[in-house]
Design brief:
- The chain is an alpha/beta fold and about 270 residues long.
- The protein has a domain at about 10-160 and about 175-205 and about 260-265: 3-Layer(aba) Sandwich (Rossmann fold), CATH 3.40.50.150.
- It contains ten helices and seven strands.
- Strands 3-2-1-4-5-7-6 form a seven-stranded mixed β-sheet, with helices on both faces.
- Helix 1 (about 15-25) packs parallel to helix 5 (about 85-90) and helix 7 packs across helix 10.
- The longest helix has 13 residues, at about 35-45.
- The radius of gyration is 19 Å and the shape is globular.
Length: about 270
Amino acid sequence: MIDLADEPHSSLPDKRQVAASFSRAAASYDSVAALQRAVGNQLLQRLPANVSPQRWLDLGSGTGYFSRALASRFGDAQGIALDIAEGMLQHARPLGGAEQFIAGDAERLPLRAESCELIFSSLALQWCESFGSVLAEAQRVLRPGGMLAFSSLCVGTLQELRESWRVVDGFVHVNRFRHFEDYQALCAASGLDVVALDTQPEVLYYPDLRSLTHELKALGAHNLNSGRPSGLTGRARMLALVEAYERERQVQGLPATYQVVYGVLQKRMNP
């Protein structure tokens, strides 16, 4: 579990590595991002019908797919796309959707206090070192009554791949994620009202292991953890991994579970 006062930074990837990895993946990301689009669309549907921001922030905007969706939904509202990966912003700028494209960190937003009515963030916050800092920044940047809508990933994500690697060796091969209970505790302690917070699994199926690992690399979401093995993975270990993962095979193919967290939080109105 994560202590509310001091989340352990060593258990998550270095954000410079995250930025570099996603920058490299900018050109290939949308071609393999079916899950990311499905989760983001589900998050859009979870927004209350009466949400009508004058200014919205797409936090962890990536290639800008949902910046463009937000622009379509909210018409004349001003949009800000913010991402830690400059390569993603370079890819997104020519496609439009937001008035501003800003390189920035979700834990230290380069925005003034009470400047947005909506912060939308889909499948980005799992890479942040301190989710408590993300929530504190949302509390600061949102106007009273404003909303934070986010999706993220928790423990249980890529569990089949993790367990298969555990059979092979003791290295960290799969990205670590927070427990859902930590999301619950941190949201409850944030000072924001929790409108909704739940988790649901999404299971994708692949014909073989190579298809899964290729997709993770194309997304920029391959192994970024400290403790991962250096250099190439040996042929014997890869064959052992394939053998271990094949034990998970179902009629549809090799399963890869993503445990998705959905949250909608609201800043309280001033008394």
